[in-house]
Q: What sequence folds into this?
């Protein structure tokens, strides 16, 4: 019965879109800036509803949130603040990325969904920040940091097959690249390495003294 309802809603939506296209081509309606976000949004909600009534339809989240993201793009381009119009692409990329993360949260068996979800959300953030053209923001370091967090989550979150420990290796590498990129951007690399050497040397001296005291006490 639930599947029949979804089919009926999807059919009505397709009919409505067809009628609107005919009326628009005839010049009868000119509400494209307002109506297209509504139509895409309704289409996305149909797919989201298909997932909500049956959690095994996890695939429906991908087209559902993609359509909702596309609705957000059109609406933001039409009605959003002019200074922030560059963030419109982030709605689409963010919607797709969010769909993959929900797929994982719905069923931990789909652990692979963390990777496209995290990557797409990172690209969405980078795309939005790039549009601001601020010299204070290093989008390169943010991109690598987002990828590092993606693989880091994959490495620590439990799944039916256990934690994906291998993901911690690319997470560490990407985090190092992000830090180095950020350091180069901030011109603090010349201070970072001496501090690392000082900390490492102090730790070595401390461990030696502690070990010596333990041997003397025994």
A:
């Amino acid at each position: 019965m639930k599947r029949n309802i979804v089919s009926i809603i999807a059919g009505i939506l397709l009919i409505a879109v067809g009628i609107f296209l005919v009326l628009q081509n005839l010049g009868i309606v000119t509400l494209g800036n307002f109506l297209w976000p509504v139509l895409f949004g309704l289409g996305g909600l149909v797919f989201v509803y298909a997932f909500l009534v049956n959690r095994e339809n996890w695939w429906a989240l991908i087209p559902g949130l993609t359509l909702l993201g596309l609705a957000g793009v059109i609406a933001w381009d039409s009605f959003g603040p002019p200074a922030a119009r560059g963030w419109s692409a982030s709605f689409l990329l963010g919607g797709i990325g969010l769909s993959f993360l929900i797929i994982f949260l719905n069923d931990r068996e789909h652990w692979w969904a963390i990777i496209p979800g995290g990557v797409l959300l990172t690209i969405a953030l980078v795309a939005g920040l790039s549009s601001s053209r601020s010299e204070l923001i290093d989008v390169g370091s943010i991109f690598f940091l987002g990828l590092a967090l993606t693989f880091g989550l994959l490495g620590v979150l439990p799944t039916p097959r256990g934690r994906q420990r291998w993901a911690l290796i690319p997470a560490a590498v990407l985090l190092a690249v992000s830090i180095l990129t950020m350091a180069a951007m901030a011109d603090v690399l010349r201070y970072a390495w001496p501090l690392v050497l000082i900390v490492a040397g102090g730790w070595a001296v401390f461990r030696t003294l502690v070990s010596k005291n333990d041997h003397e006490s025994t």
Observations:
- The chain has eight helices and no strands.
